[in-house]
Each structure stands twice: as C-alpha cells, then as structure tokens.
Amino acid sequence: MKIIKKNLKIKGMSCVNCAQAIEKELSALGSGVKSAKVNFAVEQLYLEFDALQISEEVVKARIAKLGYSVAPPESKESESPPSKSLLLKFLFSFVASMVVMLLMFIPMHALPMEVNHSLQFILMLVVLLVSGELFLKGIWTFLRSGRANMNTLVGMGAVTAFVYSSVLFFQDMHHQTYFETSGFIISFVLLGKWLEEKAKGKTKESLESLFALKSMRASRIVNNGDNGKGDESVDVEQLQVGELILVRSGEKIAVDGEVVYGSGQVDESMLTGEWLPVEKAPGQMVFAGTLCMNGSLQVKVLKDAKNSRLQAIIDYVVRVQSYRAPIEKYADKVSEYFVPVVMLLALMTFLLWMQLQGEVKLALDFAISLLLIACPCALGLATPMAVLVAVTGAAKRGVLVRGGESIEKAGAVQEIIFDKTGTITEGKPVVTKVTWHKKLEEDLLKQELWSMVASVEHLSSHPIAHAIVEHAIKKEGAELLPVSEFENKNGLGVAGVVKGKRVAIGSERFFKEVVVANESSTIHAFVEEQLLLSFSLADPIRPGAGEMLARVRALGIAPLHLLSGDAKSTTAKVAKELAFEAYQGRVLPEEKARYVERIKEAGTEAGGEARKVAMIGDGINDAPALALADLSIAMGSGTDVAMEVSDVTILGGNLARIDNFFRLAQSTMRVVKQNLFLSFAYNVVMMPLAAGVLYPSYAIKLTPVMASLAMGLSSISVVLNSLRLAKSREVLY
After folding, report:
1. Positions of the chain with pLDDT under 50
2. Contact between residue 582 and residue 562 where contact means Cβ atoms under 8 Å apart
3. What span, in angstroms and rounded, lies between the C-alpha atoms of 534 and 348?
4. What confidence score (pLDDT) does residue 323 get?
5. What is the phi/psi pair of residue 90, to 5°?
6. What are all long-range contacts of 628-633, with beta carbons under 8 Å and residues at least 24 apart?
7. How far is the C-alpha of 512 from the C-alpha of 55, rounded, in Å?
8. From CA 373, how far away is CA 348, in angstroms rounded?
9. H or E element in which residue 169 lies
10. What pLDDT does 702 receive?
C-alpha cells in the first residue's frame, strides 16, 4: 500500500451538487480511493489514494467525464472573477428578456409580425447560448453521466420554452410565441448564483490572508572570519534547524526557535489573542509570525518554516475546511430525482395522448406544458430570494452574512463558544482606577502632572502606554510636551525629562525589582523620585455583554462557553460575572479547535447526533476553531483573517447584533421552507392539469401559454413571501 495525499484545483463547478457528484464518482472507483472530499467554496479536491491500486490520471479522467477540469492547486486564474461574469450574464439576459416582452405589445402596423418574431428568436437564441451556457452544460452533463443538478432543471425548462416557441415560429411566423419565458428562467437563477459566487470568493481570500502572516525573509547570522559575525538576508525556506537568525525591533519572527542572546518584547496576539506583549529573554521560545516590538533577539532555529506553529494553523484551517459537510440545499436534494422523473412523465404524457387521440400537436402541447409547468423557476428562487432580503437587510445594519448556507447553519446551532479577549471584553487595556499618593490642591497641577506622564508614555509603543496616554488626554485634559533623555526598559517602564524634571512610569519591578501579583496591571508614576500617583488597568467587559447572553439563552441556545488564552483566574472571573455555563483559560489555538470537537462529539457519545456548535472570535488564534465550528462568527473589530474565515462578521463589534442575527436566521429559514412548500405544492397541483387529467371529462386544457403564466405566478408568490422578511423586526433592528 502506497498512500498519497494530494490537493487538486477543480474548475467548472457551479453548485454544491457538482462537488457531491465528484465525490460520488470517485468513491465508485473502489478501495483505491481512501478519501475524496471536495470543497466547493475554495474549488479544491482533497484526495487520498493508494498509488498501487489507482493512478492520479484515472482520477482526473473520471472528473473530466463529469465535465470538470483539474489543475494544480497553485495555478492562478487569469480570467475575470466568476462573480463578475455571472453578473454580466444576468444583466444581459434580463434586459434582453424585457425587450422581448415589450416586443409582444408592439402593434402589427408598427412592426410586422415576421420582423417582430424574428427579433425575439434572435435575442433569445443569443441569451440561451451566452447567458444560458451554464445550464446547457448541465443538460449535456446529465446526458453523458446521468447525474442531474439544479443546472439541469433550469436548462430543461429554458430549452423547452425556446424550442417550442421556435417550432411555432418556423411553422407560422404569425403564431404567438413564448420566447421571453426562456430568458426570464435564466435571468432569475443567474441572480441567485451570482449571490452565491460573491460569498464563495471570501473563503479563498482567508487562506491568502493567513499566508500573508508568514515572513518570507530572515537575517541569518554568519561567521565572516576575521571580520567577526554578521548577518545576511535569506529566503526563510533556506533556514536549517540549528542555525541562528537575528530579529530586530519591528521585524516579524520568521521561524519557531529559542532565544539565545538579547531581550525584547514580542507581540504574540496573533497566536494567543492577548494584548500584552511578552518579554523574551535567553532560553524562551518565540514563534513564526509574531512581531518583535522592541529590543533585539538572536534566535536558534528549532523548526523549519514548514513545521512552524503558524504553518500548523494554516494547514489546520485548510484541512478542516475540506471536511466541512456541504450545505444540502433543499432544491438540490430533490433535483437529482426530479429531472428524470419529470422527463419520464412528459414522455409518458406524449405517448398516452398519442395512443388516446393520435394527434401529434395535442400530445406535444400536453408534454411541453408539463415540462413548462414543472420548470424550476420558483424552486430556483425559493432560497436565493429569502436570503437576498435577509442578507441585504442585515448588511445595512452591520451584520455581514456570507450566504444562504450561513443562515441555514445558524438556525441549527445548539451551543455557542465565545472567545474572551476582543469578543466579550474590549481587547485592549483601559485605565480603571487612579490613586493619588500626594494631595494636590489645584486641578491645574493635576493636569500638568498628567501632561508630563502622557508625554513620556507617548514615546512608547506598548499597549499599556497607549491606554495611559488616551486616558490622560481624553479624561484628564493632558497636553503633550517635549521630552528629553527618554529611556525605555523593556517590559518594566519608561522614563524621561519633562520641563526639567525626571518622570518615571512603570510597574513595581521598574522601581524595586519586586514582583507583586495583581488581578490587573498596576502602574506607578514618579516625579523626581517621589511617588505621586498609581493607576490600574484591565481589559473591561464590553457593554451589553450580559444582556446579549441572556437573549441568546432565551432563543434556546445553551450552554454557552468561554475560552481564552488569558490567565485562568482572569477567565474565571469574567465567566462567573456573566454566568457562562463552562469556561477554560490558558488555551492555545489548537486547543480551542479540540474544544470545539469535544463539544460536537458529546452528542454522539450520548447516542444522538453531533451537537451543532457556533464559535465567535476575533483573532488569528481563533481561526482553527472558527474553521471547525458548524457556524463561525467574527467580530468586525478583530483581524481580517478571522473575519474572512468566518461565515458571519459583526461589524464594529456590537454584541447586540449577535442574538439579532440568530433571530433573523430562524425567521429566514421559516420563509425558505414556506417558499419551497409553495413551489412544490404548485408542481403537485399543476402538473396533473398540464398533463391533461381534466381534458377527457371536462375539456379543460392547460396550454403552454397558461403553463408559462402559472410558472410566473408561482415565482411571484415566492418573491412576495420573501419580501415579508424586509419588514420583520430582526432586519429592521
């Protein structure tokens, strides 16, 4: 057995059913294919096969048989984005269909019927070949492989309407035709596909953002002989375990390693999510992708670039995305069986009426009416229209929803995991308490002292310094003054001379070299070696967090979990204050992902189905857990990677929008199910009429014209039902 794992790019997929068709086709190859998972969102096939039993060429041939092409995963597309192409095709199809409809109302004396119908024929032929190419391909794939999807349904309806009208046109140029039906079928469904494609593009960007965190170059320390040691810039891939690199202030660390010389502060928030930089000294570990904020470090390479913690996070996100269960669209679930059944019924209808009446035109009318009445226009609109109304309304109010599948997943969520820092808390320190050690009689003196403190802290890049400066200026009326002899002692404090006086601000270690444990960061300010004031800093809970959690529980979603890379005591304090049912501190990115897995598996261990879990976070360190959760929500105040890998983004970090989104999702899914019921009920009632069930007894015949009208009415009912969402309080919130 020789197991090979490969990632292949699949081109030509248009819906989730395409991905499912590829998986089924490859699974049919037998034991040689160990695993075949297609991620429609990023157009990737994650393949695991035994090279002794089957070759990669056989796999590619099977995929090509279905009408799709295979390319290496690193291949770049030179053509315009698919979403832009779909939009242009929709606009062209819709405008052309409207023109054809207007031509129907032009009097014969203004435009001869022969010219009128010729224009309609030419316009719809171009629409069918250009805008309807995707659906024609769906018919061709069905004929070749026997696998049907939504495209096959749409194609059958559009082609039938066009062919029927064309037959009438060539038989008698004065006969009424129904060319516009074909155009509107194509237009409406293209609109829905354009919305899906826009959402799909964001998933591809998430991986690119993760790769952008990696440093491509590093300064390798080399021995220059008599000239001593120096450094040279090399590609990070060239670094070997055991070599030394130099990391200067402001540079990203290229690899995982151990500090052997120097000291400095490193921003590890992309891994831990915590705002406080970590002081690094010889013997301590540093990680790829983190930022050296100040100081200089000599680092011994312990892992090459391909095995860094950052690369592990990237690989984890890619792997987890490939194993996400595809969203089963209600229409696509039915389409695989619906198309052949309708085609068979149409053929049986034609043969039955030929047997009963022996009249070709009558039999053809009934058969084509059946195909037209069963045309999936309403079926194609059922989900996209409801999603369009909900997503557009939510976006106007600060909630970005990736697409219909995010709405569907949100409606099934049973438990939610919250990241603490930046989600439940503000994610940055603020001054929470000020203590004066010397009584100052005049406010003017206090303002002057705050100005001196702010002026010195302003020269530091530390997050605590930023918090002190912001407090001093906004709440104490401080002004920035010139500073000389500035001194920055990494991780301890800063000092400088302002207006001839030495000002020192820092922790107790800065002055006494004594570590004192505090729940929050306590900073002291000295002027001329005299302690004047102290202030405490903490990461405060966001306003409205408690109320939001209560509303979420009222929706039946519980228990609620809290995770953090912060200290266990700090995490426990926040969890107890907000009544979280479960919490855990000091968790790494991989551990957050494993926590998600444990929650999901808890349901199966109890003999039921896996629990549906949502993850809400804001940082790079949340990316693996966000990717693994059934629904991922990113706070818009967080990092781009967290937002791009997520299904939903809450802009501005407004917590009140979280529970509002879940209410909106539940309302939208109710409307979607109502739409699907309307479209299917329409087919169940109208198809027998179209087939001529009432014709022998009552001479009631549903002509193709009436079938087209009925199809239009079914679409209108779906649209009107979807528009009710625009007036719901969830969207208007």
Report:
1. 74-80, 199, 202-203, 316, 320-329, 513-520, 638-639, 641, 731-733
2. yes
3. 89
4. 43
5. -60, -50
6. 628/320, 628/593, 628/596, 628/597, 629/417, 629/596, 630/409, 630/412, 630/413, 630/600, 631/406, 631/409, 631/410, 631/413, 633/658, 633/661
7. 70
8. 16
9. helix 150-171
10. 80
pLDDT, position 315: 63
The Cα–Cα gap between 538 and 523 comes to: 11
| Structure token pair of residue 602 | 């808890």
Residue (of 730, 714, 712) closest to 667 by Cα position:
730
Q: What are phi and psi of 302, to 5 degrees?
A: -105, -25
Tell me which amino acid residue 382 is: A
The CA distance from 637 to 655, in Å, is: 11
> CB of 221 within 8 A of CB of 414?
no
Q: Which amino acid is at 484?
A: S
How many other CB atoms sit within 10 Å of the CB of residue 596?
27
Written as six digits, the tokens of 459 are 């020269």
28 with 10: CB under 8 angstroms?
A: no
- Burial class (CB within 10 angstroms; exposed 0-12, middle 13-18, buried 19+) of 27: exposed
477: CB partners within 8 A, 6+ apart: 447, 450
3-state secondary structure 246-285: EECCCCECCCCEEEEEEEEEEECHHHHCCCCCEEECCCCE
CA 359 centroid distance within chain: 56
Q: How far is CA 455 from CA 473, 484, 486, 521, 711, in A?
A: 10, 10, 10, 20, 72
Residue 130 backbone class (left: φ over 0; alpha: ψ -120 to 50; beta: rest) = alpha
Token pair 């549903």 in the structure block, residue: 702
So what's the pLDDT on residue 95?
Answer: 93
Spatial CB neighbours of 305, under 8 Å, sequence gap ≥ 6: 214, 236, 237, 239, 254, 255, 288, 311
The arrangement of strands across the sheet holding 44-50 comes to 33-39, 44-50, 3-11, 69-71
CA–CA dist 260, 252 (Å, integer): 17
Parallel, antiparallel or unpaired: strands 229-235 and 69-71? unpaired
Angle between helices 150-171 and 133-145 (to 10 degrees): 110
Distant-in-sequence, close-in-space partners of 53: CB < 8 Å, separation ≥ 6: 30, 31, 32
Enter the tokens of residue 472: 């001093």
CA distance 354 to 363: 6
The confidence score (pLDDT) of residue 446 equals 85
Residue 586, burial from CB neighbour count under 10 angstroms (0-12, 13-18, 19+): middle
Quick check: helix, strand or coil at residue 50? strand
Q: What pLDDT is attached to residue 512?
A: 59
Task: For residues 505 and 421, give the distance between their C-alpha atoms in angstroms, rounded to a whole number.
Answer: 26
List beta partners, residue 245.
220, 299
**8 A C-beta contact, residue 458 and residue 480:** yes
Which helix (H) or strand (E) covers residue 5, if one does? Answer: strand 3-11
| Cis preceding linkage at 540, omega within 30 | no
- Nearest CA to 691 out of 464, 428, 235, 363 is that of 363
The DSSP result for 493-506, as a single string, is EEEEEETTEEEEEE
The half-sphere exposure of 616 on its side-chain side, counting CA atoms within 13 A, is 31
- The residue among 315, 313, 323, 319 whose CA lies nearest residue 621 is 313
| Catalytically annotated residue among 267, 365, 419, 647 | 419
SS3 (DSSP) at 635: strand
Say if CB 557 and CB 416 are below 8 A apart: yes
Closest C-alpha to 325, from 615, 646, 631: 631
Question: Concatenated DSSP letters for 86-128?
Answer: HHHHHHHHHHHHHHHHHHTTS-TTTS-HHHHHHHHHHHHHHHH
622 included as an active-site residue: no
